[in-house]
Amino acid sequence: MRILIVGNGGREHALLWKLRRDAPGASFFATMPNGGMRPICTPVEIAPGDIEALSGWAASNHIDLTVVGPEVPLAIGIVDRFESKGLTVFGPSQAAARIESSKSYSKDLMRHAGVPTADYRTFSNLAGAEDWVRERGAPIVVKASGLAAGKGAVVCFTVEEAVNTIRSMLGDLAFGEAGREVVIEEFLQGEELSVFALTDGVNCLILPPSQDHKQVGEGDTGPNTGGMGAYAPVSISSDALLAEARTRVFEPTLRAMAAEGCPFRGLLYAGLMKTNDGIKVIEFNCRFGDPETQVVLPMMHDSLLDPMVTIAEGGRVKDSLARAQAGAAVTTVLASGGYPGGYENGHAVSIPSNLETDSCMVFHAGTSFEDGRLVTSGGRVVTVTATAPTLAEAAQASREGASRITFEGAFYRGDIGWRELSRHDGGPVG
Ligand code: AMP
Ligand code: GLY
């Protein structure tokens, strides 16, 4: 089997890692692979967003399955293009990818389908948005409607902050086209959970839930990032909660999309908040989460490839929960100094050769080779996943692994999993 992975971040490295275990005899290809993926696949030097060139390459190179990692190629129609050439591809169509690429579409869909989510309004006009914020008061959340690399949601604790955020999005286009329309929504309180469902458009195979750490600083402080670490399992996600997610979130969303003529086939990511009023959807994504994938896939007991092929070929998966491995997984992201703001690329990265073991995986994100040297080439550089019998052990091993990787300006959060650990120990971990 010949498998092409589109994308070159930590998530795609983890997908490559898992699919290689599922299909040791397959040949793997990846678009412009990072420094960790490059030695274990055949590089395809075509950018993930160049869907015309990629679909042509996949057709002439007899690719049996293409797995699309990032949202941008999905949002510009990579799946439609591949399918028009008779290729088998895992991911949603462009129309279905709007569940992530347009927050206003996704919120309207949830409203019509009766899916629990924060109360909201959508604006493209500054005065209307400001009036509504003044009427509602703070805290309130302002979101760019379009794609903003995980940084387009701003939780505002004062009306002034919300007004300034709206002005920067709608007035100064600080988020470019993504912020021409903003969704302003009610602030929800509770704990977040990332739930991934492999879906054929009707049925869902729900993967082990995980928890991301979106804020840059320890103790969940500072601005949002793409994600600084993740862990699984999460004890707040009982089977009852997952049953609620299936019947109140996934099923009505999929039914509504199918009824609109854009069934969602692929990986549907529900970012949920467990509130005192039950679960509510914070956001949907049309792809695997990053860095959650770096813990969810190591926790998956069975094949990922089998349901992916079934879904990509138009078959049905069983409504079920994926079996999880025993124990826990924690991943810690090492980021470039300055991230999520500006940062420098090109710093030499040193990873001890004995760091990787059966229970410690180094997934590369923003690395590349320059004159044969491994260097930084992104905000999130590598993620270190450790698995262990307990979450405390996995967290410690992940943190220790991260401390052994060096590059100029490197930083990481040493507290990944702190909520879960404080539940176990009865107090926060230091
Ligand atoms: P999003 O890009 O929509 O996932 O939002 C990024 C992060 O902002 C979420 O993971 C939450 O931590 C926070 N957030 C988003 N929407 C809300 C909300 N309505 N209430 C509270 N926090 C939110
Ligand atoms: N970790 C959040 C995301 O992938 O959107």
Offer a few descriptive terms:
alpha+beta; Dna Ligase, domain 1; D-amino Acid Aminotransferase, Chain A, domain 1; 3 domains; five-stranded parallel beta sheet; five-stranded mixed beta sheet; 13 helices; 23 strands; globular; disordered C terminus; binds adenosine monophosphate; binds glycine
Average pLDDT metric: 94
Shape: globular
CATH-defined architecture of the largest domain: 2-Layer Sandwich
Relative strand content: 25-35%
What ranges have pLDDT less than 50 throughout 5 or more consecutive residues?
A: 426-430
CATH topology of the largest domain: D-amino Acid Aminotransferase, Chain A, domain 1
Helix content: 25-40%
Task: List bound small molecules.
Answer: adenosine monophosphate, glycine
Radius of gyration: 21 Å
Distance between the termini: 47 Å
Q: How many independent structural domains?
A: 3
Assigned CATH superfamily of the largest domain: ATP-grasp fold, B domain
Count of extended strands: 23
Please give the order of strands in the largest beta sheet: 3-2-1-4-5
Largest sheet: 5 strands, parallel
**Count of helix runs:** 13
CATH class of the largest domain: Alpha Beta
